[in-house]
């Protein structure tokens, strides 16, 4: 019997397009999108920030150094959040409804800049985003990133001893889905042909 629903955030609750952020920083720095993408991957900006190895101030200082810029915090925040697209209110409504029948959790690779922006957008739709979930498991707080199986194991434990066979994880990334399954968690893969609203019709 399924008792727990664990949601990813990007392309599940809010649509995202990561290359848009690379493009935004390329335009700010006056370099090619390919060069900006290479810098992000070589310097592991995402990874260090999203597992909490560096804090927000250090992350921004690192960006300024690598891109040889004096960008303001606001400029960096705006470019960093370019990848965040639409967050349909219907998805938040559905999560709110599901809380009546299930324990609902969030498990996401993310960072404080994106979380602030998502919380702000949800507030504009009269939702306290984090209150939609019994507990959010955020990579920068947990010290793990999907698809590391330890992320799921720690989430199950910190959720109060959640049983994997009673839990469903919803994600758009096949590697993350496969990793969750190795821990024994039931999964729903949101492939490009489906949305969270389509896949949860029977819940």
Task: Give your account of this protein's structure.
With 203 residues, the protein is of the alpha/beta class. It folds into two domains: 4-16 and 87-199, Rossmann fold; 19-83, DNA polymerase, domain 1 (Orthogonal Bundle). It is 48% helix and 11% strand. The protein is built from eleven helices and five strands. Strands 3-2-1-4-5 form a five-stranded parallel beta sheet. Helix 7 (112-124) links the parallel strand 2 and strand 3 (135-138). The longest helix has 13 residues, at 112-124. The protein is globular, with a radius of gyration of 17 Å. The mean pLDDT is 95.
Give the C-level CATH assignment of the largest domain: Alpha Beta
Q: Which architecture of the largest domain does the CATH hierarchy give at level 2?
A: 3-Layer(aba) Sandwich
Unreliably modeled segments: none
Q: What proportion of the residues is helical, as a percent range? A: 40-55%
Number of helices: 11
Largest sheet: 5 strands, parallel
Task: State mean pLDDT (0 to 100 scale).
Answer: 95
What is the C-alpha radius of gyration, as a whole number of Å? 17 Å
Question: Going across the major beta sheet, what is the strand order?
Answer: 3-2-1-4-5
Q: What's the SSE pattern?
A: EHHHHHHEHEHHEHEH
Number of strands: 5
N- to C-terminal distance: 12 Å
What is the total domain count?
Answer: 2
Tell me the fraction of residues in β-strands, as a range. Answer: 5-15%
